Every structure is written in C-alpha cells, then in structure tokens.
C-alpha cells in the first residue's frame, strides 16, 4: 500500500512537472492554454475552500471574470491590445453587484467580498506570469528564461526545505499555522535555492550573478509567505488539501501557493532592473 501511494505521488508529480515545463518551453500558444486551465482550476479550488468556511461566493461568475482578466493580461503583455482594455474588468465587477441583488440571502457583502478575494488572491498573481514572459526586459518576445528560473528555484527551495527539515528540523517556523515547517528547513531550502540561482546564472545571462541571487532571495521569501498564507486559509477551512486533482499532492492551489506571492514580486524586481539597468 505504501509503495502504491509513493508511486501515485511520483507519477502525479511527474505529470505536473511535464505540464508546467511543457507550457513554458514549447511555445506561447501552449503556454496560454496550460496556464489558463491552471488559473481556472486554482480559482475554483479557492472558491471551494471559501465555501468550507461557510461563505458563498459567486463562484461561476467569479471564474468567468477571472478567466477574462487572465486572458486580457496575456494579450496586453503580448502587445495585442492596449492596457486600457482592463476597463472591461471594471464593468464585469459592477455586474457582480447586480447579480448579487437577485440572490435570496443575507450575506450579500460577504459573498461579493469572497468572490473578489478569489480573483485578487489567485488570478492577478498568476496573470503576472504573463508580464514576466513578455516583459520589456525580454524585448517584447515570449521567453522562458525567467519563468523557468522562477519555478526551478521554487521547486529546489521546497525540496531542500523538506529534506533539511526532515533531517534536522527542530525549531518551528510558524507552529500556529504550519506545524511541520521549521527554521532549519527554511534556511536549508534557501541555501539550495541560492545554489540553483548560481547554476542558472551560468546558463542564462539576462541578469548578473548578483541579480540572480536577489531573484532567488525574493522567490524564497515571498514563496514561503505564499505557502504560509494558503496553509492558514486551509486551517481556517478545516481541510488538508485544496483539491484532489493531483493524487498524493492535493490540488493545484497547493502546488501554486508559493507562486502566488513570488511571481508578482519577481515581476516588480524585473521591472526595476529594466528601468535602472537596461536602456
């Protein structure tokens, strides 16, 4: 039984990695298909999580709004449509209020709040991956360099933290929210992440070694907070996993919790580098 579960976890992880990397490495068309599906599934999982706490977001309309915002971001980042296209999202949010008055319930404001919360928590952070891929730092062309580096560092950090934490973890990082995480594991994961950043710098010359190390530091710091925030939300909802789409690993939200906080900060970092260091 144990071997069967381990095999299931390994196959699930392999499929996940292949899908993620395939979406990044093959071309921008597969990328938008893969990450659109990820956005929809992760947002649906977040709404399911909110429902477990007794709240009732407008999940189907929220998913429609989230899908629209993600696709708008992709085409804005790609240069197909102007940034003013985001005004469409304002009208979609207004309809959220209109639809709500037809619902026969008392918690209208809470419903609206959690519908928007899901979009802010999931869709907007994942959408920043589009700008990382098509940022001006990449000359307006789709490139996998920064996306691939972001995920590699996140995965290396998670794996390193798990290994070091399992072997040496004694001091709890945030016991109230995530009792299994330790300072030893967190520091160990960060060390592995910095080593990964050094190796990446040997292959990708878009940033200097120092900048790649900062890239890794930002990813580790905010990725850790992303993990903690999702752990906190799941603890509030009384559930272990956000979903069941990945046997042995939970849901997509469980796999992307670190990305939700790391991606926006990496995009901001790349824009700062572009503004100050690239003419």
Kindly describe this structure.
With 279 residues, the protein is mainly α. The chain contains nine helices and two strands, in the order ααααααββααα.
- Unreliable runs: none
Please report the number of helical segments: 9
Give the termini distance in whole angstroms.
Answer: 59 Å
Largest sheet: 2 strands, antiparallel
Secondary-structure content class? mainly alpha
Mean pLDDT: 89
Number of domains: 1
Question: What's the alpha carbon Rg, rounded to whole Å?
Answer: 19 Å
Measured by DSSP, the beta-strand proportion falls in under 5%
> What is the string of helix and strand elements?
HHHHHHEEHHH
Helix content: over 70%
| Major beta sheet, strand line-up | 1-2
E-strand count? 2
Form type: globular
Topology (SSEs and partners):
Elements: H1 2-25, H2 28-52, H3 59-78, H4 87-100, H5 108-134, H6 145-168, E1 172-174, E2 178-182, H7 183-203, H8 209-237, H9 252-277
Antiparallel strand pairs: 1-2
Helix pairs in contact: 1-2, 2-3, 2-5, 3-4, 3-5, 4-5, 5-9, 6-7, 6-8, 7-8, 8-9
Can you describe this structure in just a few lines?
This protein has 279 residues and is mostly helical. It has one domain. It has helices spanning 2-25, 28-52, 59-78, 87-100, 108-134, 145-168, 183-203, 209-237, 252-277, and strands at residues 172-174, 178-182.
């Amino acid at each position: 039984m144990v071997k069967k579960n381990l095999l299931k976890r390994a196959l699930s992880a392999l499929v996940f990695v292949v899908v993620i990397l395939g979406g990044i490495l093959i071309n921008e068309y597969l990328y938008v298909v893969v990450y659109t599906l990820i956005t929809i599934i992760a947002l649906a999982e977040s709404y399911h999580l909110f429902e477990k706490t007794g709240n009732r977001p407008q999940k189907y309309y929220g998913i429609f709004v989230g899908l629209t915002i993600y696709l708008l971001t992709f085409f804005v980042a790609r240069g197909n449509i102007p940034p003013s296209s985001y005004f469409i999202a304002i009208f979609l949010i207004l309809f959220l209020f209109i639809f709500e008055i037809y619902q026969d319930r008392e918690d209208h404001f809470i419903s609206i709040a959690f519908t928007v919360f899901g979009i802010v928590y999931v869709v907007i952070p994942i959408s920043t991956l589009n700008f990382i891929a098509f940022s001006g730092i990449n000359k307006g062309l789709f490139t996998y360099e920064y996306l691939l580096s972001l995920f590699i560092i996140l995965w290396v950090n998670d794996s390193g933290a798990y290994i070091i934490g399992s072997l040496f973890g004694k001091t709890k990082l945030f016991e109230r929210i995530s009792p299994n995480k330790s300072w030893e594991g967190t520091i160990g994961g960060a060390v592995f992440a910095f080593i990964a950043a050094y190796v990446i710098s040997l292959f990708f010359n878009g940033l200097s070694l120092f900048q790649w190390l900062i890239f890794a530091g930002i990813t580790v710091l905010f990725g850790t907070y992303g993990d903690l925030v999702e752990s906190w939300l799941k603890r509030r909802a009384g559930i272990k996993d956000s979903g069941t789409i990945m046997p042995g690993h939970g849901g997509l939200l469980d796999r992307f919790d670190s990305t939700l906080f790391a991606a926006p900060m990496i995009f901001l970092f790349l824009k700062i580098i572009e503004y100050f260091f690239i003419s």
